[in-house]
Amino acid sequence: MTVYLPPIWALSLLTRQAGECNVVENMAKPIPLIIFLAALAVLAMVLALSIGSAQLSFTQTLSALVNPGESLHGNIVWQLRLPRASSAFVVGGLLAASGVLMQVLLRNPLADPYILGVSGGAAVFALLAIMLGAGAFFISAGAFFGAVLSMLLVFALAHGVGGWNTLRLLLTGVVIAAGWGAVISFMLAISINTRVHGMLFWMMGDLSHADIPLWGGAVLVFGLCIALMVGRSLNLLARGDKQAQSLGVNVGRLRILLYFLSSLLSATAVTVAGSIGFIGLLAPHLIRLCGVVDHRFLLLASVLFGGTLLVLADTLARTLIAPEQLPVGVVTALLGVPLYLFILNRGMAGGAER
């Protein structure tokens, strides 16, 4: 009996077509999730525009958006609620995108700008600019400088004999964050009394004075585009340095890019809204639990989900004890701490089972 063996080129073509089918299938899976998250983000924005000291119906909110004019409803939506809600969405997206990049950089799903001290470093230099009476540009520049400096300290101090270690990086980040916290406490203690309240509120996350975040949105779009361009390399880097290098990724250059990009994103978020924790940790992690592993889709989904989470958290912050307002960072911490402990406990339980 003669056994027919297909030629090598046919096997190669079949293998390539199968691989392309798998890629298309894997790319198609997260698309419904992204559509759902986009719809959820729109609903969260409408809810944020409708709820407040003056309750607006869905019809009134849409009418105010379409025909702002000089009406009371138009002023409430366009002057008060839309700037705050849009800032919350942009800041949530910035923190979520920065969290994804840091988690790839450290290969640890529990890394985020807040835990690693990046937010603390940005806050210290932004507060210093506020204490000196500097303008918005110098506050932004100070926040970016502080974020980059914090990342430099973490990576420099964590680089031991065997190079960077994930556990060492995380522990160093926690120590650096504690150090920044001490510096912030000292700055608050010696600052002028009239500025202490505003600085404290800003330290806990404050969106009450937010404007339409044009430059914050521009930074988010820029960072997201750059990250999506290297999305394939992010997927390879997440598997390990050696495997990424063997497949043609310049690991050193990619790490530097991720380092500065995550610093830019987190510094921008801190500049717009102050120090807000857990969004950069929870949004990417919860998206991963939905089965999204491709970092191109993970970035998009995390930005949408992170923005939605912060919009909802800010809506709670300004309505929970109305007419008084809570700092939005307090709400994210109250929600984030138990979720973080649950994720940590779940990971430890999974490790014990294996």
UniProtKB/TrEMBL annotation:
<feature type="transmembrane region" description="Helical">
    <location>
        <begin position="113"/>
        <end position="131"/>
    </location>
</feature>
<feature type="transmembrane region" description="Helical">
    <location>
        <begin position="295"/>
        <end position="313"/>
    </location>
</feature>
<dbReference type="InterPro" id="IPR000522">
    <property type="entry name" value="ABC_transptr_permease_BtuC"/>
</dbReference>
<comment type="similarity">
    <text>Belongs to the binding-protein-dependent transport system permease family. FecCD subfamily.</text>
</comment>
<feature type="transmembrane region" description="Helical">
    <location>
        <begin position="169"/>
        <end position="192"/>
    </location>
</feature>
<keyword id="KW-1003">Cell membrane</keyword>
<dbReference type="Pfam" id="PF01032">
    <property type="entry name" value="FecCD"/>
</dbReference>
<feature type="transmembrane region" description="Helical">
    <location>
        <begin position="137"/>
        <end position="157"/>
    </location>
</feature>
<keyword id="KW-1133">Transmembrane helix</keyword>
<keyword id="KW-0813">Transport</keyword>
<dbReference type="GO" id="GO:0022857">
    <property type="term" value="F:transmembrane transporter activity"/>
</dbReference>
<feature type="transmembrane region" description="Helical">
    <location>
        <begin position="325"/>
        <end position="344"/>
    </location>
</feature>
<dbReference type="GO" id="GO:0005886">
    <property type="term" value="C:plasma membrane"/>
</dbReference>
<feature type="transmembrane region" description="Helical">
    <location>
        <begin position="33"/>
        <end position="58"/>
    </location>
</feature>
<keyword id="KW-0472">Membrane</keyword>
<feature type="transmembrane region" description="Helical">
    <location>
        <begin position="212"/>
        <end position="235"/>
    </location>
</feature>
<keyword id="KW-0812">Transmembrane</keyword>
<feature type="transmembrane region" description="Helical">
    <location>
        <begin position="85"/>
        <end position="106"/>
    </location>
</feature>
<feature type="transmembrane region" description="Helical">
    <location>
        <begin position="256"/>
        <end position="283"/>
    </location>
</feature>
<protein>
    <submittedName>
        <fullName>Iron ABC transporter permease</fullName>
    </submittedName>
</protein>
